Amino acid sequence: MPKNIIGFVLIDAPHSALNNAGQDVGARTENTVVVKTIRRGRSVYPYVSAQAWRYWWRTALQEKYDWKMSPIVRDSKVAFTSANPFEYPDDDVFGYMRALKKSDGGILTRLSVLKCSPLISVFDHAPTDDFGVMSRHEGDPVPFEHQFYSTVLKGIFSLDLDRIGVFHDTERTGFKNLDTKYVEKEEIKSSIRKTAASRENGAWRLPKDERVKRARETVSALAYVYSTTKSSIHLTDVTPKFIVLAVIDGGNHIFMNITNNRHDKPVINVSALKQVMTDYGDDIVSDVYVGRQEGFLDEISDELDSLDIGGKRLHVSSPKSAIERFADCISGHME
């Protein structure tokens, strides 16, 4: 079974417009920008796309941990990165697809080892329409509208520890990360030498210290993600205010349903958390780290502190501390 880091997060968004869907052509004014929402029956749920969340994440890795990002090349209507996971850690973690001439390796694809959901409101909430005007010029004012919301967003993610820093050349979509002809290109050969990658059991593998570094920094960057969308008038801290982290022997995300949906507030079901940790105790191969910001979900503080999960150590602290302490244990779960 694959060994995965799994994480569950709640992000407080009390006055936010974090991911816009563009212009509303049927609105009262011509300049109307709406946020992204989904519907379940008559209920409306604001959300942030997984692509936007990953963009914040990638930016934090570049700015906080000085990741050297893979250059993007635009060719007509197609854009692609260098497809060089030796040199560029974002090609490794976030995946890529690049179509080359058959003589150069053909179509190369890498499934992202970092998988995540959209960030979706934990309760139904119709966005607020805000009306404004541009009037600092001569003549008639120019009306405009935009939407924002007040909610808490829920998201999950996983990071495949067995595949980070490991690159295959098998003829299988998503797993043909490299090609025997492609690795003969001088730029790729140079990157292989520079990173001291070796070929083992039909796959290229980076040294353990580099694979651990990439995994640790990927998780650690969660404490530094930020959004600039509508930040001039709706500045929102998008770092987690509640987080659960663990390493599991398997691919399922067992923490996905530990939140109860209510019309007015998020509720962490501590009994549900205990249940999945008990049911999957043999599959959870690490301690479990829970982070909660003081002032957020204070009502579950005592219940979390007294939670007994029989044989599994539960560490409760602030979100940033939980992220840092969990990152420190990652190396023990990588070969």
Distance between the termini: 14 Å
Overall radius of gyration: 22 Å
Order of helices and strands: EEEEEHEEHEEEEEEEHEEHHEEEHEHEH
Largest sheet: 12 strands, mixed
Rounded mean pLDDT is 89
Q: How would you summarize the topology of this molecule?
A:
Elements: E1 3-16, E2 20-23, E3 32-35, E4 37-40, E5 43-48, H1 50-65, E6 73-75, E7 78-80, H2 89-94, E8 96-99, E9 107-110, E10 114-116, E11 119-121, E12 128-134, E13 142-160, E14 166-168, H3 186-195, E15 198-200, E16 203-205, H4 208-220, H5 231-234, E17 242-249, E18 259-260, E19 267-268, H6 270-279, E20 288-292, H7 301-305, E21 314-317, H8 319-329
Parallel strand pairs: 3-13, 20-21
Antiparallel strand pairs: 1-13, 1-17, 2-3, 4-5, 5-11, 6-7, 8-9, 10-13, 11-13, 12-13, 14-16, 15-16, 17-20, 18-19
Helix pairs in contact: 4-8
Protein architecture, described:
The protein is of the alpha+beta class. It has a domain at 50-117 and 166-205. The chain is built from eight helices and 21 strands. It has helices at 50-65, 89-94, 186-195, 208-220, 231-234, 270-279, 301-305, 319-329; strands at residues 3-16, 20-23, 32-35, 37-40, 43-48, 73-75, 78-80, 96-99, 107-110, 114-116, 119-121, 128-134, 142-160, 166-168, 198-200, 203-205, 242-249, 259-260, 267-268, 288-292, 314-317. The strands form five sheets. Strands 1, 2, 3, 4, 5, 10, 11, 12, 13, 17, 20 and 21 form a twelve-stranded mixed beta sheet that branches. The protein has a three-stranded antiparallel beta sheet with strand order 14-16-15, with no helix packed on it. The radius of gyration is 22 Å and the shape is globular.
